[in-house]
Amino acid sequence: MEERINVLSPSFRANPYPRYAAMRTSSPVCQVDPGGMWAVSRWDDVLFVLKNPALFSSQGFKAALEPPWIGYNPLVHSMVALDPPAHTRLRGLVTRAFGGGATRRLAPKVERRAEELAGKLVGDVDFVEAFAIPLPAFVIGEILGLDSSLHVHFKRWADEIVAITPEPSSAEHAAQVRTTIAELSGYLRQVVAARRQAPADDTVSDLIHAEVDGHSLTEEEILDFLVMLLLAGLETTTHLLGSSMLFLATHPALWEKLRGDPALASPFVEEMLRYDGPAHALPRITTAEVTLAGMTIPPGSLVLVLLASANRDEHHYADPDRFDLDRAAQGSLPFGHGIHACIGALLARMEVRTALEVLTRRFRRVELGAGEIRYNRTILVRGPVALPLRFS
Ligand code: HEM
Questions:
Q1: Spatial separation of the C-alpha atoms in residues 281 and 275, rounded to whole Å
Q2: Is omega for the bond preceding 85 within 30 degrees of 0, making it cis?
Q3: Cβ-based neighbour number of residue 339 at 10 Å
């Protein structure tokens, strides 16, 4: 029997794409470590899973991100981890905050903040720290109406909650993550209390006054919701900014091309989302026995839906390992599909496009700086967490 792939091993995390390609060819539905989860790697099968929430439940988030050592993880009690009908009711509440109108209203503020941050990119910098974290933190802070002094904490909160593993790496690690969850919930509880006293024009106030089937949301439901929005809007966009700039720093001709024609920022973002998008896998749990690509998956199994592999499926894209600005990659799966498809997709695209327009306008060159490029170690999202760049 072939040795099982460990999706958390450093060699897999460093570059999972060749392993994804091998999986698609020889074992498109197979078990992987840790824990013998089932991985689904081909485009058609990924789409099948996402189109069938009754068979593949989003309670998979609970199985993946709330192991017993954690206690309570607000993320896995939020909308992203719910199935219909509870999911359907909650989803209606937030779509307004992330639609085209809201995104257009935010665009000038995003551009101003991107200009400010770009002004500090002098010489050698860690791009993640200096730009890729603060920009999405600012945006989600604006939407939720959170105090800007808290932005510096957002990323640590997000990192620790998204990186939860079946076992903690140490007792200290376990204590740290539990403290982070308590800290984040405690802070958001204060924000909710303040908005109850003095409502504002923001998502927190909207949630307090929202009614679902004639009932207001409970305090816990509001907190779970806010944690989910904070994490969903942060981690992914930071990684897309980082991966985009890493690619451009190592492909100077492409940087030149974007500098020459700012309209190319949009197709660049689309192809980057397909080629090396941040959302690698989504967790689902089977509600019944199901046969997929000839493999029988038992009920109650944790399934990893490999979006990043589907986005490189050779049966769907010609020459999928080539970055092709002319590909028109719309229709790829970087934001998921179906009832849980990302509600922040317009916003995320706008943030990264604006950032690229600002950066290509300001800098003639960008290249790799001294120091190590480090990647995160989570199963669900992937991107650089340290990216030394030199701007000139
Ligand atoms: C859901 C990706 C940015 C809010 C999702 C899903 C994916 C995804 C793949 C589907 C989850 C599932 O099916 O289980 C991304 C990527 C982003 C990004 C790649 C950036 C490049 C954002 C932003 C926000 C956001 C900026 C908002 C601030 C959400 C929410 C959901 C979601 C609320 C849950 C939707 C539901 O359960 O119905 N995202 N996302 N995302 N995303 Fe995003």
A1: 14
A2: yes
A3: 14
Task: From the CA of 279, give the closest atom in ligand 1.
Answer: 19
Q: How far is the CA of 334 from the centre of ligand 1 (A)?
A: 9
> Separation of 354 CA from ligand 1 center, angstroms?
19
Angle (nearest 5°) at CA 277 between 276 and 280: 100
180-211 pLDDT, tens digit each: 888 888 888 988 999 999 988 888 888 888 87
Range of weakest confidence among 3-17, 148-162, 264-278: 148-162
Residue 9: both structure tokens together: 């091993």
What's the confidence (pLDDT) of residue 277?
95
Report the separation in Å between the CA atom of 75 and the middle of ligand 1, taken as the mean of its atom positions. Answer: 13
Q: Using a 6 Å cutoff on CB, does residue 222 contact ligand 1? A: no
Nearest alpha carbon, ligand 1 atom 13: 340
Query: Would you tell me how many other CB atoms lie within 10 Å of the CB of residue 175?
Result: 11
87 Cα to the center of ligand 1, angstroms: 14
- The angle at the Cα of 233, spanning 229 to 235, to the nearest 5 degrees, equals 120
pLDDT confidence of residue 154: 76
Mean pLDDT across 327-335: 78
Pairing mode of beta strands 215-216, 281-286 = unpaired
Rounded to a whole number of angstroms, the CA Rg of the chain reads: 21
Residue in this structure with the two tokens 């919701």, named with its chain if needed: 225
- Residue-level pLDDT at 2: 63
Which of 206, 236, 245, 309 gets mutated to test ligand 1 (max ligand atoms within 8 A of its CB)? 236
8-state DSSP, 131: I
Question: What domains can be seen in the chain, in order of their start residue?
Answer: 10-391 (1.10.630.10)
pLDDT band at 329 (very low <50, low <70, confident <90, very high): low
Q: Establish whether residue 89 lines the binding site of ligand 1, counting it when its CB lies within 6 angstroms of any ligand atom.
A: no
